[in-house]
Backbone:
């Protein structure tokens, strides 16, 4: 009996060692991925002379504070960079929404399987091993959203413009979508596979595409401003 | 001075409006200080490293291993149709068989502009130094790839088609690049065999200067990750599959909901082939024990 127990423990140890080999590898892979992803996004923002505004995980919460009981939270909160919004803008101040200025959001979706709309039960913590969409069928994409006001006003870009807007319809060619209700802005956006960021000249390519969308959006905002005067 | 700034020992300096500014901040916005911080050390590098860096920055295979000397902010007289004026490029590097003009704009400074490039090239070619030696021009920082490409084409065409012989013959190449690729090429030297111990120490100083200008000096490259051969990862690991049903249960629900014990029982049944426990069996045990 004792021998059998030893044998079972030994087998389990091997399995568990193998599991933690995977876990160590998975964490290192993620760190290596973030070490490339974030500088790439920052480089694109720098090319556009944008300033950092904010970041936030899009599907789960940020890891809780020091004294908050982490055991009451979802374990998915421990992966805040999985699906995340990184927001930049080019206005002088955060509380000065100004015609001619704009905001760009980089919505990184490393695994579309965890998006709320793809989950079986959005209000419950998803089972990482039993998501409706398999890793093979899920997608890894970057959604770039642009926001440009057609009316100058004193309000915070985040609360007064970015937050009240739903995500723009993503299009291949620039398509300015007007949001009137208290937001007074045009929005647009496009999507690319995340793997494109690993290509040579990816920063230049994405920057150029954003510039095309930006110029189109700013033009629409300028025209709308003239019409309303 | 750079070391003092990097280690926070340089203090502050008063400006013309009597307001003081930190040397660190001054370094970051002042092109002459960046020029000095990076190129003040360039002449101490070995010929191999100088050659490697300039070939990388200029994107050509010209031999730059015959460095003679470097001039900081030399002044040349520009003769124009209307009036003459002085022009001051940031650097002129002299080699035994070619010359190189460098115009520097720090990452947080003003932009490069084509008129300045034209004036610097023209005034140099008009000077006594604009000999038969091939001339190269390099703009570093604050220029987009598109502008760099367009402006280089415009100026190369302008000079090569000039009716003035002093201007038409010797300009070989105009290149421009941002600071991050410059920093990348310097950092890449650490992995190459061409850098001597002295080179490595000088390179470290230059990289420190790059850090002052918020350039990324720890470069993580996508190809390294894409080509990385990791252990094969799977979600079907037996440890996860067998224990999945209770491992992933929400901890709060787990504690509050009696039904959440059911997965644990079913796991035990599947994994260990045990008969689920029930009160009847427990009762029987109690009877037997008595």
Residues:
């Amino acid at each position: 009996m004792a021998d059998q127990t030893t044998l079972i423990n030994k087998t389990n140890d091997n399995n568990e060692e193998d599991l933690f080999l995977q876990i160590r590898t998975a964490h290192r892979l993620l760190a290596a991925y973030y070490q490339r992803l974030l500088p790439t996004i920052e480089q694109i923002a720098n090319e556009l002379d944008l300033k950092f505004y904010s970041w936030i995980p899009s599907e789960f919460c940020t890891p809780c504070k020091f004294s908050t009981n982490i055991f009451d939270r979802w374990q998915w909160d421990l992966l805040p960079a999985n699906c995340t919004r990184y927001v930049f803008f080019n206005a002088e101040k955060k509380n000065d929404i100004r015609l001619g200025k704009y905001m760009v959001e980089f919505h990184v979706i490393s695994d579309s399987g965890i998006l709320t709309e793809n989950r079986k039960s959005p209000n419950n913590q998803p089972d990482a091993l039993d998501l409706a969409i398999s890793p093979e069928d899920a997608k890894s994409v970057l959604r770039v959203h642009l926001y440009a006001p057609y009316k100058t006003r004193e309000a915070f870009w985040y609360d007064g413009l970015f937050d009240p807007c739903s995500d723009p319809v993503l299009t291949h060619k620039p398509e300015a979508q007007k949001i009137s209700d208290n937001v007074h802005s045009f929005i647009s956006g496009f999507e690319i596979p995340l793997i494109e960021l690993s290509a040579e000249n990816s920063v230049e390519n994405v920057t150029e595409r954003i510039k095309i969308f930006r110029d189109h959006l700013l033009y629409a905002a300028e025209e709308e401003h003239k019409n309303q005067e | 001075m750079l070391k003092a700034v990097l280690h926070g020992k340089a203090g502050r300096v008063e400006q013309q409006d009597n307001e003081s500014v930190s040397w660190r901040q001054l370094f970051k916005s002042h092109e002459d200080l960046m020029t000095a911080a990076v190129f003040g050390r360039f002449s101490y590098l070995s010929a191999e490293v100088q050659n490697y860096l300039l070939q990388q920055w200029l994107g050509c295979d010209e031999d730059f291993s015959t460095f003679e000397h470097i001039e900081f902010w030399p002044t040349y007289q520009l003769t124009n149709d209307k009036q003459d004026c002085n022009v001051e490029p940031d650097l002129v590097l002299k080699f035994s068989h070619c010359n190189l003009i460098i115009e520097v704009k720090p990452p947080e400074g003003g932009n490069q502009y084509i008129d300045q490039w034209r004036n610097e090239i023209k005034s140099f070619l008009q000077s006594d130094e604009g000999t038969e030696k091939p001339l190269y021009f390099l703009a570093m920082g604050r220029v987009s790839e598109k502008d760099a490409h367009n402006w280089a084409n415009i100026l190369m065409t302008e000079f090569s088609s000039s009716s003035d012989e002093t201007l038409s013959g010797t300009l070989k190449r105009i290149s421009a690049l941002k600071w991050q690729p410059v920093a990348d090429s310097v950092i890449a030297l650490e992995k190459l065999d061409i850098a001597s111990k002295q080179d490595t120490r000088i390179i470290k100083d230059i990289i420190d200067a790059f850090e002052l200008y918020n350039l990324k000096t720890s470069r993580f490259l996508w190809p390294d990750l894409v080509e990385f051969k990791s252990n094969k990862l799977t979600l079907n690991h037996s440890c996860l599959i067998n224990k999945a049903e209770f491992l992933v249960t929400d901890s709060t629900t787990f504690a509050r909901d009696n039904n959440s014990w059911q997965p644990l029982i079913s796991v035990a049944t599947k994994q260990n082939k045990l008969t689920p426990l029930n009160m009847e069996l427990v009762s029987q045990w109690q009877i037997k024990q008595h």
Summary: The beta strands of chain B are 12-14, 20-22, 67-72, 76-79, 84-87, 91-95, 99-104, 135-140, 171-177.
